Structure formats: C-alpha cells, structure tokens
Amino acid sequence: MPWDMDKCQWGVPAGFDNAQAATAVNAANYGASVYVNVSQQEQNTKQAYTYYTFGGFRLCVVAHVHRGPTEQFDQPGNCFIPGWAGWSMSTPSAVVQAVGPLAPGGAFPGDNRYPHPV
Q1: Domain residue limits at 37
Q2: Which of 2, 26, 43, 84 has the fewest CB atoms within 10 Å, i.e. the most exposed one?
Q3: Radius of gyration of the chain (CA)
Q4: Residue 88: its pLDDT value, please?
Q5: What is the reported pTM?
Q6: Rounded distance, CA 68 to CA 56, Å?
Q7: Per the domain annotation, does 33 fall within a domain?
Q8: Is 71 left (phi over 0), alpha (psi -120 to 50) or beta?
Q9: Residue 111 lies in a domain
Q10: How many domains would you assign to the chain?
Q11: In this structure, are residues 118 and 56 in contact, taking their beta carbons and an 8 Å threshold?
C-alpha cells in the first residue's frame, strides 16, 4: 500500500509496508491513547487513537472494537493507520482486550493523525 501524500504533508518513513503496519497495530500502547470515543449514531463501535514510532516518524494507529451480545466492547473491528492508503486489518484479540475497557476521552488528533517526524 502507498502513503497518501495529499495527507502526509510532513513526510513518511522509509521501508514501511503492510507487515510493518501489522506490527504497529500489535505493538502500539492503547493504554496511552490520545483519543477514545464511541460512535454517536448506534453506539456500537469504540475507537482508540494512539501513536507508534517507526523509522523516525510518529504514526497514529486506530483500533475499532464493536459491542458484542453481552453489550461489552469485546468484538473485533478493524485497525488502520491514517495515511497508509487502502490498508486495514481485523483488530487482534489482545488489542480488543486493551481497547474494550477504555473510557471515552481525549481530543481527536486532527492532522496529527498523519505521520510526523520525531
């Protein structure tokens, strides 16, 4: 997948690929999420935005978790990296367990969700 250079105005890390994207999803610290919210319309999806560093860039990683039959956020959704065009993966179970209990809060990162040099 390529970077969307219309959105990635501060540059992108060299050598980043889909395998690196999956590593970022699995290694990101969701307990340090900068923004957590629950979808307003149906309130069935929780999303958490956190950061992961790769190749001298801070990348935002977004994890979606869905409400299950027990009304808990315990079902996988998808994860993606803003700016990494056309790629997503199913939310891994360890990520579901980390994001599910998070309380909504923080501030939407806006353009800071795209790669930034560190």
Answers
A1: 18-117
A2: 43
A3: 14
A4: 97
A5: 0.94
A6: 38
A7: yes
A8: left
A9: yes
A10: 1
A11: yes
